[in-house]
Structure formats: C-alpha cells, structure tokens
Design a protein that fits this description.
15% strand; single chain; 42% helix; two-stranded antiparallel ribbon; 285 residues; 11 helices
C-alpha cells in the first residue's frame, strides 16, 4: 500500500501529508461509507468539524475499521457558536463522544471571529492535559494569526486555509513560516472552480505522467510542503486523489504552475466587512 509522507509539526507530532476531508457530507451513512473507503485506500488523516454535522459518522467509521485508533489521525474544528473558554471545553467533550475516542489528534478553531481567545485558551489547557495532541487554527489571515501568536502560550501547529493552484497564499506562507506553523489546505481542487479540471497547463503536465489535472494540482501542493485534504464521496475519485505519490514534478513544471496564482480567494475574503457580518450572525445562532 502507498505510504504517504508525514510532516512534523512544530510540537513534534507527525501528521500525514494527505488526508481525507468530509465537508458537505452530512448524511450519516454516506459519510461513514466515504471514510471507510478512504481508510481502505490508505488515507490515515480524517478531517471533520463540529459544523459539518458528521463527527458521529466519522467516529462510527473509525470504530468499524480494522485499523488501530493510534494509526488514524483525527482532526476536528470548534465552530464559532461554541467559542469561549467554558463553551469550547464543553463542545470538545461532545466531539470526543461523537468521535468515539478519548483523545483527538488535532483541534482547530474554525474561524477568526467571536471569542476565539477564550476558545484558544481552552484548547491550550486540553493540549497540556493530553486530551488533544496538537492545536491550531483555520481561516486566520496574517494579522489575526500574528495577534493570536503574540498573546498565547502555544503556537498553532497548522492554519487550515483555502489554498490551491489559483490562490497559493504566498503572503501567508511568509508569516506562518516564522513560527513553523504548517498550512493545511481546504479546497485543494478549488472545488472545481476556474476550470481547474480542464486547465491547459495542468492537462499538458498530466499527460506526461498519465495523471489527471486534479492529480497534478494536488501533487503541486504536496511538493510545496503543505498538508492536503481532498474530499469526495465517489470511491474512484477517492482513490484517484490518493494516487499522487508515484511521481515528482520538475522544477520547471513547479515554476509554471506557480504562475497560475491569482493571489485572491475564489470563495470568500475573510477580511471583508460583509464576511465579518455573516460570521458574526452565524456565531450567534
């Protein structure tokens, strides 16, 4: 079976460089089947979140899998309506029950809004107790990342942010690298936007290796040193996304793909006032 490389986080914990995401798979049986297929394929990192409403399905799949719990890296995320010191601790207890585990490998704060200071302090406490092996953040732009690092004890192990060939997060990388905070990618295939599956450059490079444009896009991110978590409910696509570890891109090809960067989100600018208003509303629900 293919061995996925691991990346050492800034606290020494090792995380598989490719994992399986379950965003937008809320139906219990569909999510459970997808996770079991991923584990059978060779994925060992499963990424869920409280807001995805499928932690219980992930827990059921892991319980049913013949794999040892210690061989599976579980990530979940705290939603902003659960922010605040006491609320976050209570929400992690619920997540542990749903995931059917007595520890979680990594927990992230899902968004940089609301009482994320109180929430992060709760994660720090649970990390120091060993309930969580690593803590981090998601969707934090450089200004909020710098603020959080400057006034807390534990440096985030990862920042999970939109990253793909069209938004390569070059500015974020500079500041995250100062504290060895790794990028973990959401939407590594841009959710199919901007013609990624028919992009001429990705098609041309893919033909050289008998790979699809999607596989080239994923391999590019992997060679840039980030953690990728593609998602699919189709067994063939789950396996295709995993089959990227038997070839390497050349420096010329990497340079060509870097030129595809548009330097902006294809989905949501978390720094915009309108986005902030939306997250404030979600945080109150």
């Amino acid at each position: 079976m293919t061995q996925v490389p691991v990346i050492k986080l800034n606290n020494g914990v090792e995380i598989p460089q490719e994992g399986f995401g379950v965003y937008q798979i809320p139906e219990f049986e569909a999510c459970k089947r997808a996770v079991l297929t991923a584990l059978e394929t060779g994925y060992r990192l499963i990424d869920t979140a409280q807001a995805y409403n499928n932690e219980a399905a992930v827990g059921a799949a892991i319980e049913e899998s013949p794999l040892d719990r210690a061989d599976i890296f579980i990530t979940t995320k705290v939603w902003i309506s659960n922010y605040g010191y006491e609320q976050t601790k209570a929400s992690i207890k619920v997540s542990l029950e749903k995931l059917k585990t007595d520890y979680i490998d990594m927990v992230l704060l899902h968004q940089p809004f609301g009482d994320y200071y109180g929430a992060y302090h709760a994660l720090e406490e649970l990390y120091k107790k060993g309930t969580i092996r690593a803590i981090g953040i998601s969707n934090f732009y450089p200004d909020r990342y710098i603020d959080l690092v400057g006034f807390n004890d534990v440096i985030p192990a990862v920042n999970q942010i939109e990253t793909h060939v069209f938004d390569q997060r070059k500015v974020d990388r500079k500041y995250l690298a100062e504290n060895n905070t790794k990028i973990e990618v959401w939407a590594p295939l841009a959710e199919g936007a901007n013609g990624i599956f028919t992009n001429d450059l990705l098609v041309t490079i893919g033909n050289r290796y008998h790979k699809t444009p999607a596989q080239i896009a994923l391999k590019f991110l992997a060679e840039e040193g980030v953690v990728i978590i593609p998602k699919s409910t189709h067994p063939a696509r789950i396996k295709e996304n995993f089959a990227i570890w038997d070839f390497n891109l050349t420096q010329e090809e990497l340079t060509q793909i870097r030129a595809l960067d548009l330097g902006k989100s294809l989905f949501m600018d978390h720094e915009s006032p309108e986005a902030a208003k939306q997250f404030v509303q979600w945080g109150k629900n």
